[in-house]
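DATA SHEET
Item: assembly model
Revision: 1
Owner: S.N.
Input lines:
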Amino acid sequence: MDKPDSERSKVKVAVRQRPFLHSSEREEPCLRILDKQSVSIMNYRDRRESVVYSFDWCYGPDNSQQELYEEAVKPELSHVLRGQNASVFAYGPTGTGKTYTMVGTSGNPGVIPRAVGDLLHASQATAQTKLWAVCISISYLEIYQEKVRDLLDTNKQDLPIRQDRNGAILVPGLTERVVDSYAQFERIFMAASRHRMTASTQLNHTSSRSHSLLMLRVVKTEQVTPFRRFFGKLHLVDLAGSEDNRRTGNSGVRLKESGSINSSLFALSKVVDALNQGFTFVPYRESKLTRLLQDSLGGSAHTVMVTNLAPEQHFLFDSTSALNFASKSKLVVNRPLTLQS
Ligand code: ADP
């Protein structure tokens, strides 16, 4: 049985500016983190006067992976453990740090390893009380050229997307694996990540050519009467970057991939506009991405969006577009539900 909550949850937005990648770069940055909640960017028309934007959190090159995770992401885990859905997604132009933010490096883990580690830890602590049994399972997919591919079973190349009677988005047939330990998760995730579509473009050596979604399902079952059961989900999304093909040097397959990425990101922008204008019709069905994120934007999940930005002047136009998208996303309001039986 579903129990609707009356709470409203605004989409929370963090901005993260990566450092210059080469120490030889001495150009003036096109944007500056002013304080914990504001960022300024040059006006792309005259490159002088700057425009200031405010967000829930603004991070610069000196802010660590841990800081971003602890402040912007970790609080979402408590929603998942009490039977609600939460989504965290990284958005921004190619080469600005989305994968760095979500996955990180071996010495500097990002949101995904930290969130999985903490969820496993919290569920083990809960289970030790003997009052609850907790089961965590993962699924991992990518949307590549408008096809949903199962990264845990590459034989599944074009899975459907459906909606259940509660409005929850489902991918029937998607592989789900129970994980008991971090080491087991790491093995599965590393192997599956190698199946992701990546390629080298002029903007980034290993640019993601797909949107990826890691789903963690947490089922918490009470061991004493009244034997309640809570169903929480955490979606961790690494979006492919928007690309200006005049700069990518893309042609052939790369250009086709880029067209598909850009049109799904355009559909995402239209969904946010429709929600903000209060339209009764929201065009979620225009792309697989918007269909899958339906719950995260205007739906029943708590959502955090991390907008990644680069300081180089040649990113000015793309960074301005990303900030405009982030600015309208923070106006979206969700209505979280607690899923309980
Ligand atoms: P994207 O996924 O947006 O295409 P990446 O995550 O691949 O971009 O980042 C591009 C490059 O920038 C990588 O070499 C990455 O290690 C580096 N990078 C990104 N963000 C940071 C950061 N906050 N600190 C240090 N290096 C970063």
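QC remark: The two ends are 5 Å apart (CA to CA).
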